[in-house]
């Protein structure tokens, strides 16, 4: 049995979705970076099965393949199938495997287990998208549903910091000016330190820094470098720092190649590795006029702003930072990404003359431009947003900021000025 202490049971927003999928025969595959809380989530699922669904504890099998003693049963597919066949003869068995990618040829291995048509529900987790993609993609087509677990969203962060404010927001009650100020300050803290659970639960700045140092060293400098067998470790480490310094800016592969004395192919391979291991997310450009708009260069954001700021060795408060706009932008990007539905896409827009929209939410023909401003005086319409509205006439637009909540109008477009803690509702 996986024992999870109550103090660690921070309600995760994806949890009800995963619980609902326990009813499906498909494999439940939970993926995400190390230390984002996947093991705790598996413990919560076990609690759900035992306490709410009244499943006998003997019918729930948990294995963590980061622990050597748990490997034995996964050395032979046929032996595991026979073991499960015997266990599930009378009652349904729930097989929970943490770090499932540790199994050699794991995709083929678990495909065989699934295709044996046993009375078994498979619940797997994995940290490395590189391994999961290469081994699970083809083998488990049509046999799995993937759930991505990130570090805490702002609402999950808020459940640790101030449950009363969570309740006010979730109930749609009016937020007082004092509460607005508290919420904005908390969002600034979230933007600087990120949402890794152990970091959020740390009480001092020193503890947070030490936790991020451990995460960065073990995950980026050891796990990823080791899996890819990267020989130029210094070049890889410098690339991460350069990308952190260029968050929210157009990425020029040739410039990175020249700066690091690495060939273009190597730079692209390293960036793809960082994407596949949930460290960064590239943002593609939106364009309809290839002569006037950027069509090739991407932007890059970190999936956790705490890791980004660790790479830069800068945890200063927002008002003390020259990059405060990019810090806020990175945190806003993550929040938008978490709440995108399957039919929505996120892009950015930039003309060759320099007009720019930070984010653009696309759903069919509908588009909502989003600008992020750490400070803005009243309901001023940024120039880039004006140019986008004139070019595309969207019905609505959003300016995320820390100064004002109001509305404005330009042509046929309604512009909302929102605090960042409202992002869940857009």
- Helix amount, in percent? 40-55%
Average pLDDT, all residues: 89
Cα-based radius of gyration, to the nearest Å: 23 Å
Shape: globular
Low-confidence stretches: none
* SSE pattern: HEHEHEHEHEHHHHHHHHEEHHEEEHEEE
Structural class: alpha/beta
What is the number of helical segments per DSSP (H or I, 4+ residues)?
16
Instruction: Tell me the β content.
Output: 15-25%
Structure in a nutshell:
By secondary structure, the chain is an alpha/beta fold. The model has no long low-confidence stretch (mean pLDDT 89).
Q: Which characteristics define this entry?
A:
alpha/beta; six-stranded mixed β-sheet; Rossmann fold; globular; single chain; five-stranded parallel β-sheet; 426 residues; 13 strands; 18% strand
Q: How does this structure look, described?
A:
There is one protein chain. The protein is α/β, with parallel strands linked by helices and 426 residues long. It folds into two domains: 6-149, Rossmann fold (3-Layer(aba) Sandwich); 156-425, no CATH class. The chain is 42% helix and 18% strand. The chain has helices at residues 15-21, 38-52, 77-87, 106-115, 129-136, 154-161, 163-170, 177-193, 197-201, 205-228, 233-245, 253-260, 264-276, 305-311, 324-338, 383-392; strands spanning 27-31, 60-64, 93-98, 120-126, 144-148, 280-283, 299-302, 345-350, 356-363, 366-373, 396-401, 406-410, 413-418. The protein has a six-stranded mixed beta sheet with strand order 8-9-10-11-13-12, with helices on both faces. A five-stranded parallel beta sheet has the order 2-3-4-1-5, covered by helices on one side. Strands 6-7 form a two-stranded antiparallel ribbon. The two termini are 40 Å apart.
């Amino acid at each position: 049995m996986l024992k999870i202490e109550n103090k660690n049971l921070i309600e995760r927003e994806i949890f009800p979705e995963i619980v609902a999928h326990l009813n499906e025969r498909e494999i439940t595959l939970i993926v995400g970076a190390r230390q984002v809380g996947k093991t705790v989530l598996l413990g919560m699922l076990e609690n759900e099965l035992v306490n709410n669904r009244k499943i006998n504890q003997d019918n729930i099998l948990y294995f963590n393949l980061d622990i050597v003693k748990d490997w034995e049963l996964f050395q032979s597919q046929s032996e595991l199938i026979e073991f499960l066949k015997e266990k599930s003869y009378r009652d349904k068995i729930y097989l929970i495997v943490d770090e499932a990618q540790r199994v050699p040829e794991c995709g083929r291995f678990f495909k065989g287990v699934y295709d044996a048509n046993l009375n078994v529900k498979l619940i797997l987790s994995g940290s490395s998208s590189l391994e999961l993609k290469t081994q699970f993609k083809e083998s488990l087509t049509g046999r799995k549903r993937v759930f991505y677990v990130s570090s805490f969203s702002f609402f999950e962060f808020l459940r640790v910091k101030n449950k009363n404010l969570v309740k006010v927001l979730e109930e749609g009650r009016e937020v007082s000016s004092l509460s607005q100020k508290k919420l904005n300050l908390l969002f600034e803290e979230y933007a600087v330190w990120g949402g890794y659970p152990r970091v959020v639960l740390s009480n001092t700045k020193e503890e947070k820094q030490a936790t991020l140092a451990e995460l960065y060293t073990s995950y980026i400098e050891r796990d990823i470098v080791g899996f890819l067998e990267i020989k130029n470790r210094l070049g890889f480490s410098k690339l991460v720092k350069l990308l952190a310094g260029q968050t929210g800016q157009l990425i020029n592969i040739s410039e990175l190649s020249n700066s690091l004395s690495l060939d273009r192919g190597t730079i692209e391979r390293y960036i793809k590795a960082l994407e596949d291991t949930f460290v960064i997310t590239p943002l593609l450009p939106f364009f309809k006029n290839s002569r006037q708009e950027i069509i090739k260069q991407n932007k890059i954001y970190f999936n956790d702003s705490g890791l980004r700021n660790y790479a830069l060795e800068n945890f200063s408060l927002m008002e003390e930072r020259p990059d405060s706009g990019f810090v806020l932008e990175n945190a806003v990007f993550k929040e938008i990404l978490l709440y995108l539905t399957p039919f929505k896409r996120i892009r950015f827009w930039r003309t060759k003359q320099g007009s720019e929209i930070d984010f653009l939410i696309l759903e069919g023909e509908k588009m909502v431009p989003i600008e992020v401003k750490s400070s803005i005086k009243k309901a001023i319409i940024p120039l880039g947003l004006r140019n986008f509205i004139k070019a595309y006439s969207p019905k609505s637009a959003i300016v995320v900021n820390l100064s004002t909540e109001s509305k404005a109008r330009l042509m046929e477009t309604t512009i909302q000025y929102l605090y960042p803690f409202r992002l869940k509702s857009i």
